[in-house]
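tool_call: predict_structure(chain=1)
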Amino acid sequence: MKIVDFFASPDREHWLAQLRKCDWSAGAFLCGLIDGDKFHTLTGARSKLLLLTDRDRLVSFCTLCEKDEIDDTELTPWVGFVYTYPEYRGRRCFGLLLDEAKRLASEAGYETLYISTDHIGLYEKYGFEYICTLKNRSADDCRVYRGSTR
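tool_result:
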């Protein structure tokens, strides 16, 4: 398996077609941001879309962003849009992406990463701890988790 930075990849059209196969509504929203050239406007100029690939197949993806779905916060950077395709679930594929996100964040000088989610018990497996509940852009409650880049 290999990690690909979507925006640095020469095969963006192929990977975008793979992203479109995601059955999660947030995946469709992500594709819309890419199609509309709004990804970096919404998430920050240095934000990345990390893809875990198995040859030409997309296994899992996540973002490493300056901003996420929580407005009015100085918390940064955020891991978001976390998704693993059903046939690869249960293999801790996201852990490989998270290790890369931690490495990139650490190289950029960050000691902490944040995740907003409504899941309980998922990110704790990766060393994240719940710190608070905040409202997202849709005014829904989101659990905010904090994890170390080390």
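agent: The mean pLDDT is 94. Proceeding to next step.
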